[in-house]
Automatic annotation (TrEMBL):
This is CBU-0592-like domain-containing protein. The chain crosses the membrane at residues 6-26, 33-50, 56-77. Residues 7-80 form the CBU-0592-like domain. Keywords: Membrane, Transmembrane, Transmembrane helix.
Length: 86
């Protein structure tokens, strides 16, 4: 295995996923906006990596992950905009 730029980008995306998962499991105040944003960025980084080192199964997983994170991000933004100002 070579540690070229696509591999490093993919590893960084994986680190974001792991960090978001850890955050979701230990956070006392869960923020859906940040959780979904970090997951979306991680998925996009992995898709960039997969554009060079293609794997169909991983591509399908990351594309679905990105779409789910995007939908969650939009829902979190809408909820935040509807919330009354303090």
């Amino acid at each position: 295995m070579t540690f070229d730029w696509p591999t490093l980008v993919g590893l960084f995306g994986s680190a974001l996923f792991i960090g978001a998962f850890a955050y979701a499991n230990v956070s006392a105040r869960f923020d859906k906006l940040w959780f979904n944003l970090v997951n979306l960025i991680g998925a996009v980084l992995l898709l960039i990596s997969l554009s060079v080192h293609f794997n169909l199964a991983a591509f399908v997983l990351e594309a679905a992950w990105a779409l789910i994170a995007l939908a969650g991000l939009i829902a979190a933004l809408r909820a935040r905009l509807r919330r009354p100002a303090p």
